[in-house]
Amino acid sequence: MATRTRRPRACTYCPEPDADVCVRVQPPAAGSAHIFAHRKCAQDRGVTWWYAIVDEPTQAPR
Predict the structure, then answer these.
(1) What are 27-36's contacts with CB under 8 Å, separation 24+?
(2) What is the DSSP letter of 42?
């Protein structure tokens, strides 16, 4: 299984780190970047998000 490294995701609506939803994807001509936001920031602006980020736990549950 591949291990993903967690990178801080900037919110497109505020300066705080750790955005937890994707609100849009730029078209391939623009580099296909995923645009992230905090769920609350998107909700406050009436923006529907596409998917939520779920980070894997650092240790398996017992």
Answers:
(1) 36/9, 36/10, 36/11, 36/12
(2) H
Cβ distance 41 to 13 under 8 Å? yes
CB atoms within 10 A of CB 58: 6
pLDDT digits (tens, 9 = 90+) for 3-57: 445 567 899 999 999 999 999 988 777 677 889 999 999 999 999 999 998 866 6
Q: What is the predicted pLDDT for the residue at 5?
A: 52
Residues in the chain: 62
3-state helix, strand, coil in the chain (%, to 5): 15, 20, 70
Which secondary-structure segment (H or E) carries 11?
A: none
